[in-house]
Specification:
7 helices, 9 strands, four-stranded antiparallel β-sheet, 218 residues
């Protein structure tokens, strides 16, 4: 699952001869905080942030005066998970993409990557959500899925998040009411920290959301 179909080739990069003022205007227009700098022969020569442009001596300064270290970039065949790690580690809103020869190919925008993950997690599909907390040593995703699907319910998506010696597990179901699945999981020793069903009334749903937020902030 690579980022090949997420590459934007229409987003214009900055050129070394562009002014800082132009760069800031382009970032504002595109609603990003980073843009690649590409030379006339289509080589990536920089990756500038909004902060770097704002710290420039003058709005009339040229982009080429701000270039420094080798810019961060990925190859077109990079897996979406690896791209996400690069963006998160460096707090980027875009990441430049190079082809196998090292030439600039385009960018991947954080917004587009977020939408891809939203589809992967079935966020747009109807269904209830159950969140568990499981000790690292006791984690068995196959067992969790088995318990759910043995009770006439399908798992649409499942994601995990490590927290010290525990793992948070969030499950999207193909049913609108999570009550029965919650009881089954609790009966089998799992700690359910939150469950959201589409058929709950607004007050009950708000209570459950607040309960879950308190858990995350603890």
């Amino acid at each position: 699952m690579t980022v090949t179909d997420l590459i934007s080739t229409t987003t214009p990069p900055l050129r070394p001869s562009d002014s800082v003022e132009y760069g800031l205007g382009l970032m504002m227009e595109l609603r990003v905080r980073h843009l690649p700098v590409v030379s006339a022969d289509n080589q990536l020569v920089g990756l500038l942030s909004e902060e770097m442009l704002l710290d420039a001596e003058s709005p009339a300064s040229l982009i080429q005066t701000l270039l420094g270290a080798t810019p961060i970039a990925i190859l077109a065949g990079t897996h979406v998970f690896d791209v996400t790690k690069v963006m998160t580690d460096h707090d980027l809103t875009v990441v430049p993409v190079l082809d196998d020869s090292g030439a600039f190919k385009g960018i991947v925008r954080r917004h587009d990557l977020f939408e891809r993950f939203a589809r992967m997690l079935a966020t747009q599909e109807s269904g209830a959500i159950v969140a568990l907390e499981v000790a690292q040593r006791d984690l068995s995703l196959s067992q969790i899925i088995y318990l759910i699907e043995q009770n006439d319910t399908k798992v649409l998506s499942l994601s995990t998040e490590s927290r010290d010696d525990t793992v948070g597990v969030t499950i999207k179901l193909n049913v609108r009411d999570a009550t029965r699945i919650r009881h089954i999981l609790e009966h089998n020793g799992y700690r359910v920290v939150a469950a959201f069903g589409e058929e709950e009334d607004a007050e009950d749903l708000l209570d459950r959301v607040q309960e879950f937020m308190r858990y995350l902030e603890a």
